[in-house]
Design brief:
The protein is α/β, with parallel strands linked by helices. The chain has helices at residues 41-48, 78-81, 87-92, 96-99, 107-119, 135-149, 165-180, 193-199, 215-220, 222-230, and strands at residues 3-12, 16-26, 30-35, 56-61, 70-73, 153-157, 185-189, 202-206, 211-214.
Length: 240
């Protein structure tokens, strides 16, 4: 049983972006994190991972999960897109958190990297240079890398940003399978309200009003109605 409790969080660097944030994520949840740019979404993810300390409050991980056992797919920069390594090297590097001080990868870790590539249907490209791939292929490689670190939970920061519609659909389908078939707990930052209404079990909205609850409750809430109306989604309800 995974349980992550965020209690009374104040997020930011010097000035809080969010105050008194409280929510809980349980095993198998699919949480979409919505909100405007600058609302603190990426800062929240980095705080969950222990990369940034909260200004106040705490993040508690339960069910035997540790921060270094959470798979993380950050937003990709142009420098990262041009990274001169093979697909295999990029994915295998996701096992570094398992190595500790050991300066080599075990057979089991290499098998895990191959399995992750297979799950993303990228094994055939393992010898290709990463920077030669399309945007959608690169995201699949990075997701395979995150799976090498993930025990039970994935944190995804706008995984379809910059992808064309076809590649975006494929990425959503892959993430849905990880949640529905593999039981992976997903926390995903997104600006795609319609995808949230299709896929999310829960929604965390960061804005003038903070909301946390089921997707059905989000549609009925004041922050949800306002957010969906601004994006032309006021007539769309949750769909499975």
């Amino acid at each position: 049983m995974i349980q992550m409790n965020c209690q009374g969080l104040s997020l930011g660097y010097d000035v809080p972006l969010v105050r008194d944030l409280r929510f809980t994520v349980s095993a198998g949840d699919y949480l979409y994190i919505l909100g405007e740019n600058g609302a603190g979404k990426s800062t929240l993810m980095k705080t969950i991972l222990g990369l940034l300390p909260p200004l106040d409050g705490r993040v508690t991980l339960g069910g035997g999960v540790r921060a270094n056992e959470i798979g993380y797919l950050p937003q990709q920069t142009q420098t990262q897109r041009d990274f001169p390594a093979t697909v295999w090297e990029v994915v295998l590097s996701g096992c570094q958190s398992r190595c500790g001080l050991r300066p080599f990868y075990t057979r089991a870790e290499k098998d895990l990297a191959r399995q992750s590539l297979r799950r993303m249907d990228m094994e055939r490209l393992s010898r290709r240079c990463y920077r030669e791939l399309s945007g959608g292929q690169q995201q699949r490689v990075l997701l395979a890398r995150a799976l090498c670190a993930a025990r039970k939970m994935l944190l995804l920061d706008e995984p379809v940003a910059g992808l064309d519609p076809a590649a975006s659909r494929e990425m959503y389908q892959v993430i849905d399978r990880l949640n529905q078939q593999d039981g992976m707990t997903i926390l995903m930052i997104s600006h795609d309200a319609q995808a949230a209404l299709r896929c999310a079990s829960h929604i965390l909205y960061l804005g003038r009003q903070v909301f946390f609850g089921t997707r059905e409750a989000f549609v009925q809430s004041a922050p949800g109605r306002r957010y969906l109306s601004e994006r032309g989604g006021e007539d769309h309800g949750p769909a499975d």
